Amino acid sequence: MISAYTGTQVREAEEPLLAASLGDVLMQRAAHGLAHAVVLELRSLSRRLYGSNVVVLTGKGNNGGDGLYAGAALAARGMRTTAVLTADSAHPKALAAFRRAGGRVRQLTDAALSDLAAEAVRADVVIDAVLGTGAKGGLRGSAAGLVNAIADGRGHTAGLVVACDLPSGVDADTGDVSGPVLSADVTVTFGAAKAGLLADPGADHAGRVEVVPIGIEENFGRPAVRRLEDEDLANLLPHPARRSHKYSRGVLGVVAGSADYPGAAVLACRGALAAGVGMVRYLGPPEVADLVRQSCPEVVCSTGTVADNQVQAWLVGSGMGPADHEQLQRARDAVDSGLPVVADAGALPALPDVLAPHVVLTPHAGELAALLKRLGADQDRAGVEAGTLEAARQAATLTGATVLLKGATTLVAAPSGDVYSQADGTPWLATAGSGDVLAGIIGALLAQAGPDVGRLRMQGAKEEGHWAAVAALGAALHGRAGRAASDASSGGPIAAGGIADSLPQIWGKVSTLSNSGSRKRNSRTQPLR
């Protein structure tokens, strides 16, 4: 599992070493890892090392010092290194080491901005070491102008951009972005991943994230954000016992679909059936039930009430609108049953304001903004998209439910404070019906988990956070199934049904990955996927 921390948590973890006068040792370790990562990246791209041009955008703090020490190490390998000082001062020891190694130093001024930007655009590597984890407010003045000019010119170059710890302008705690940001191909981060790198919009600018250990790792406490990896997924997947039967494997009740959106019920049922549940019971309008029967003959259809059906979990809301009064009442009854519920789309406006952790809400940004506004928070869709991590946490706190915010990076927030971040998918997942399949997958996992979450428990998570782990598992499976469906068409577009069709294949692959999480790359850096 990947554990990510806030900037404050990282500084607290560094404090014992700083108190022991080991601050320069920490910086040297970080710089060594950064330089090593640059070398590995160039080699992976079959690019030369000796004679390569490296430009280090340098701030005045420790982040700039990391970049300068790394630049000195790269200069020692025969690379032509230039440090662009974006402030009126720089870390003195690191700057002296950079100069001793033969690095060239240039001062950023308004007059030199265009020339320095052109040099950075032509470089083989640009290292962004301007702002670190403690910075607030983003780039300003000439530094902002320089980054804008470099970003404008990047379409004409194949140069590599490497962020030192995090891209300047990305908030380490939240992933919020202030001012211009130079999007990185690789972010080399120190000690642990930063929470802001695992949440949009920060993740948009981070590229691939590499974690460099620097000796503070044992000082961390509870992570701010977690991400499930191969081994976690394999350990979480439910598997039937030898004497299991369809009822012991979990029964999911589905309240979804309407005359306007009958296909949502079909896709939700298909997602559930592909995710290992023993039985699916559908409740809805007769015409929708007929379509479900034709498409999914395994589903047992009914027009009764929630109380008439014995299930272990409910899925409600997919394809339902405000005029579907009978279906919306069934959704409310499902929540009142006390069983685990995944509530999607049309059910979200109809549920009580105060819920419980075993209710998993699955809004997209627009739906989450509407939910927050209903609860008294001044929020719109743009605000949610600009601060996804804080928005998901706020919704979980206000509702008491587990909140899964769908997006390129899917976040799952529990009222306990546990947060999961999954980015397993492909942009092709942005297609009609994809969310219905996701709801079916999560519903099936909830039914197999049972009222006490069964064996689907994450070590280190608070009790309420176990439901978030189940939802994160569903998001990961959904993303990987979408990617597999796209790969089957050589990276092309997919339809929502293809996600469900690919899920059993992904389930089988994940089941065999229990040992992959322990494999280490033959380097000091560890990749964050």
How is this structure best described in words?
- With 529 residues, the chain is α/β, with parallel strands linked by helices.
- It has 17 helices and 20 strands.
- The strands form 3 sheets. It has a 9-stranded mixed beta sheet, sandwiched between helices. It has an 8-stranded mixed beta sheet with strand order 4-3-2-5-6-7-9-20, with helices on both faces.
- A hairpin with a 4-residue loop joins strand 17 and strand 18.
- The chain is elongated, with a radius of gyration of 25 Å.
- The relative contact order is 0.11.
Write the layout of secondary structure elements.
Blueprint: E1 2-5, H1 7-19, H2 23-44, E2 53-58, H3 62-75, E3 80-85, H4 92-100, E4 104-107, H5 113-122, E5 125-129, H6 141-153, E6 160-164, E7 186-190, E8 193-194, H7 202-206, E9 208-212, E10 225-227, H8 230-236, E11 251-255, H9 262-274, E12 279-283, H10 286-295, E13 300-302, E14 313-316, H11 325-336, E15 341-343, E16 359-361, H12 365-374, H13 381-386, H14 388-399, E17 402-405, E18 410-413, E19 419-422, H15 434-449, H16 465-487, H17 496-511, E20 526-528
Parallel strand pairs: 1-8, 2-3, 2-5, 3-4, 5-6, 6-7, 7-9, 11-12, 11-14, 12-13, 14-15, 15-16, 16-17
Antiparallel strand pairs: 1-10, 9-20, 17-18, 18-19
